[in-house]
Amino acid sequence: MTLTENETAAPDVRIAKARTARTAVPAEAHAEFPSPVQRADPLTLLARQDRDRVPELRPLRYGRMAASPLAYFRGAALPAAADLALTPRTGFGVQACGDAQLANFGLFTAQGRRLVFDFADFGETLPAPWEWDVKRLAASFEVTGRENGHAAAVRRRTVLAAVEAYRLAMHDFARRTALDIFFAPADARTLRTVAAHRLGPRNGRAAGVRRFTEIRDGHLRLAERPPSVVPAGHLAGDGDPATLTDRLGVVLTHYRRTLGPARRALLDRYRLADAARTVTGPGDVGTRSWVVLLVRTGTGDPLFLQVQEARPSVLQEYTGTTVAGGPARRVVTGQRRIQATGDVFLGWARAGLDGRTADFHVRRLRDEQPAADVTTMGPDVLRAHARLCGWTLARAHARTGDALAIAAYLGSGPAFAEAVRQFATACADQNERDHAALRQAIRAGHVTATAAP
């Protein structure tokens, strides 16, 4: 059912389609996890992604993924997509996050210094089945609970909390208008619980990119923290007469054209001062990612932008969906659709860099709040986090899909949540086996890895 049909079909017709889907794909069917015979080899899939990544960073990617089952899970978005593609589909599409694991949600400061909780990563976003996001999210809580040493019964309650929060929120959104859904705020009490954990232990630590900067010759510059942060001047020895920083300036010029007049005027108050290549999460290691420091002329006020190479979504080959305008525009369009807290500097560019033409999405690098360390979360905090993630995911799906049909499919009972919990357990079991296989391949010399810093 397309979004246009959602807007025109009568509610009883949409509910009837949901009930038909429930007959064809019972809730209990979502417990299924692909058998080893069905699954593609995860290491082969990961190696396929290496082909156009920065060669010297490939070993770091595997070193980070080998650190723990949770680290492996975070980096294995493509194997996860391949597994999800083998699971039952209800037929209702949304703008999916594409990698809706808990590490890809964040706490941000919005206008008026108001704390908000929302998606933080959009590299894989694509129109896709809604249930794929829910299953990926549920599995991430099972894997994290194991990493944290939580008992099986505790993990069960956490995973159910995430899925039930999604179901209850979807029923709520099904009764609301489109505008109500668009501006719906998260539950304040749950948000405070998560914020207290995220902010409390780290108040003394510089957040975001500010801990990667230093003062040199009286000016703010990006400090060298290899391999996580390497200034562009240390990478520009490829024989090109232009410096790498200059080529990044060309990327920003192309990016500027995708902003509206008011945002271009705001960006024009700043000039490019420094740039550095950065290494982000396990799944993105090896993609071309840059932090760009701009300063306001006259005052020196800093503005940090992240310039991230965009690739085709890991979901694309399993959905057959393509988005006009290239990968970077896909990311920007998807982010605008599912993220409730907008970014005035969000845009994209296609330009040459490192001797090849690539697509980049650009956004402000938020440095106000530190990233959450999920491995330090106790059961109560992790469960609150699960509820908040489930609600946030439901809001995104309700904004871009048919909330009424999805709610009708989910029903009023716990059957769907229990089935997804079983899926999450099976997924976490397989994740541990895949992580062990990666470590064995490294020991055997089949995969080259360097220790993660």
Record the SSE blueprint:
Elements: H1 3-8, H2 11-24, H3 42-49, H4 58-65, H5 69-75, H6 77-84, E1 93-96, E2 105-110, E3 114-119, E4 126-129, H7 130-147, H8 152-174, H9 178-182, H10 188-199, E5 213-216, E6 219-222, E7 229-231, H11 244-256, H12 261-267, E8 270-278, E9 289-296, E10 302-310, H13 316-319, H14 327-338, E11 347-353, E12 356-364, H15 379-400, H16 403-410, H17 415-443
Antiparallel strand pairs: 1-4, 2-3, 5-6, 7-8, 8-9, 9-10, 10-12, 11-12
Helix pairs in contact: 2-16, 5-7, 5-17, 7-8, 7-15, 7-17, 8-15, 8-16, 8-17, 10-15
Overall spatial form:
globular
Give the number of DSSP strands: 12
How much is the average pLDDT? Answer: 89
Please tell me the total number of domains: 2
Q: Give the low-pLDDT segments.
A: 201-206
Overall radius of gyration: 22 Å
How does this model look, in words?
With 453 residues, the chain is of the alpha+beta class. The protein folds into two domains: 3-204 and 375-443, no CATH class; 208-364, no CATH class. The strands form four sheets. Strands 7-8-9-10-12-11 form a six-stranded antiparallel beta sheet. Strands 1-4 form a two-stranded antiparallel sheet. The model is unreliable at 201-206 (pLDDT under 50). The radius of gyration is 22 Å and the shape is globular. 45% of the residues lie in helices and 16% in strands. β5 and β6 form a beta hairpin.
